[in-house]
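for the record, two folds in this file. i put them one after another cuz i was lazy. first one right below, seq on top, C-alpha cells after. the second one comes after a little note so u can tell where it starts
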Amino acid sequence: MKIYGMQESTCTQKVLTVLAEKEHEAELVEVNVLMGEDKTLPEHLARHPFGEIPVLEDDGFLLYESRAIIRYLDQRLPGRSLTPRDLREWALMEQWISSEQSYFSGPVYDVIRSGPVYNIVWNSPGAVYFPPPPDEPMLQKARQDVGKAFDVMERTLSSQPYLAGATFSLADVTHMPYISYLIASGGGDFVSSRPSVAAWWERVSSRPSWRKVGKVLGQA
C-alpha cells in the first residue's frame, strides 16, 4: 500500500492519521507541492487527473480525494472502526464530514493563507499553483465564518466528547489538520476561547496517531 502525498499536507494528514489509528504501515511516496510536483509530474497526473494530493494505491487500485480514502481505509483495514455502528451517530459523522468540506476548511484556509506559516509557500517554486492571500475584506469574512463554525462545534461538544457522539470517528479526523495549521498561523484563540472545543482538541491532539502524524510546514 502506498500513499502519494506530503506529510505536511492537511489532506495527506487525514489519511496518515487513519493509518496510524489502524496501526497499519503504508509507504509514503512524497509528492512535493512546494515544488509544484502535484501539478506538473506526468506520473502523478496519471494518478490524479486534477493534480492534487493524496492518492492511495492499494494492490493496483488507485483512489484520490482524502475523504473517500479515509472511508475506504476504515473499511479495508482491521482494527477499531472509526465509523460509528449506531445509525444516528453514523449520520452525524457524515454530517460533520460534509459540513467540514462546505463551511469549515475553506474559510480556515483563507485565515491560514494570511498567516506566517504560508510564507514558506509564497517563497517556494510551487507558489504559482496556490491561491493568493485573501484581501482584508475576504479575511474578515473568513474569520467570521470560522468563528461561526467553531460556535457550532462548541454547542455540539458541550454535551458529548466527540463530534459524532461518544467515540472518536472520521468526523474528528477530517477537522484536525486544519485546526493544527490554524493554531500555528496565530488562530489559537478560535479554540482556546471555546472551552468545549479546547477540551476536545486536547483529547484528539494527544492521541498517539496525531502525535505521530501532525506536522506543520516549517516546524521540526
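(here's the note) second protein begins now
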Amino acid sequence: MSDRHSALTSPPANDRKGATSSRGATREQVDAAIRSGLLTGRFIPGKAVTIRGLATDLGVSPMPVREVLQRLAAENALEVKSNGRVQVPDMTPDRFDEVLKARLLLEPELAERSLEKLSKRDVKMLTTIDDEIDQCIISGDAEAYMRLNHAFHFHVYRASGSKVLLPLIDSLWLQFAPFMRTVYGRVGTAILVDQHKEAIRAIEQRDRDALRDAIVGDITDGMGLIGKEILETT
C-alpha cells in the first residue's frame, strides 16, 4: 500500500464538501473508517502510509487521524513511526502464537455466552450472511468475504452483551486481519472452508459443545493459513 493507493475509501464526491468543512468528520467516523480498513485488508503488511495521506483520504485534519492511530497502536493493530508513517506490525511466530491462543480462549467462550440470547431471527440473519460468504468464495471477492466473515462472527459475539471480552476479541481481529487478506491474495478464496454452517446448526439445537467446536475449528483453519503462507514463507 502506498500513498497513491489509499487504504481507505474516500468520501463520495457529493459528501466531500461536508467531510472537509471546518467541522469535518468526527473522531468516531475516522476510527470506524480505519478499523474497517484493517478488517478488510486495505492496510497491507509491509506497506506504509502517512498520517497526512490518511487525513487527506478521509477529508479531515491530521489531528483526529493521529488520535485514532495512537489508540490503535495501543491495541497493537498499527505502528506509528516517528516520521509520521504508519504500518501494520510484523507477524512474528511469537505474536502469531499469542493471537491464536487468545482467540481460542476468548471466542468460543463468548459464543457460548451468546447461545441462549440468539433467536430464530438471528439464525436467519446468520444464514443470510453465510450464503453471501459462499458467493464471495465462488466469485473470489476477498474483501467482501472478510467483511462478511467479520459480520458473521461478531453477530454471534455481540449477542453476549459482554463489555470486557468483546473489545479484546475486536482488538485481536484487527491484528490478524491484514495478514488474512495477504493470504487470500496469494492462494485465492476457492480453498477457503469455514465452520459457519456447523455453528448455525449448533445455535438452532442449543448445543454448547458443538458451537464451541465450530468456533474452534473455524479459528484453527483460518489461522492455519496465516501460519503456512506468512510464517513458513518468510
